[in-house]
Amino acid sequence: MLEFYLIIHFLFTVMQFLIGVLANGIIVVVNGTELIKQRKMIPLALLLCCLAISRICLQLVILCMNLGTLFLIEVPLLADNFVIFVFVNELGLWFATWLGVYYCAKIAPITHSFFFWLKIRISKWMPWLILGSMMYVSVPSVFCSKQIWVHSQNVLSRLFSPNATQIKETSALQIVFLIRLLLPLLIFLSSTLLLIFSLGRHTWQMRNTATGPRDPSTGVHVSAILSVLSFLVLCLSHYMAAALLSFQIFQLRSLVFLFCLWVFGSYPSGHSMILILGNPKLKQNAKKLLLHGKCCQ
Q: Which residues belong to the signal peptide in this entry (predicted)?
């Protein structure tokens, strides 16, 4: 029988899953409808669709991991699908990275010639960046799938064993997996921090030079900074939780282990909620879809 704190963790996991699927589903519906109506390639809508679809798949895998933690599904099922988890997680991180680069190029008030050049070309590059990310992530998943499967079966069998204890064994495959995640992390950090600092400096300059009524754009810049900061915190937390879970330093079902799982799963659902709340078009369409669902009931 499950302990009380495990039941609470399971309820939070289900809520996290439902919120993530709902938020990402709204993003797919809104942007997918826009792509169909326009009948042409819209870079941001295409990127958001790909990002949301990858996160829905990731939410399903995270739900299976949590069910495995509670011994509600068998470990071999997790091992068989671990290659899918590696692929979906890394692909979603690359899509989120390109979203950060896109926002930095389009929003950051930087007058350098390189950013002007990037701002003009980023939209044309977006389909190729998406395709290149899929190819880059697919290579190890296809050619090293057997090694990943064998390693994941061994790790998950130890990790999700009822008698599991702290394991400090680290394999080369784990290190390679984490190193591969460093590249999108570095690109994301560079673009996000640059966007935050440039918006912050621009907002500070506008406040100091304003002599009349408050400029409405100042509030927009502050909202954008808070939104990007929230995204940054969620992303870094996701990377940290992935590293801690990968090195298996916590005992199965311990509070710290469950907390890491919860933090790991908060990123794909939490950031999608931030995207909806920070985008007036997504926010308005989300309200329409929810009101339509209530009317149908």
A: none
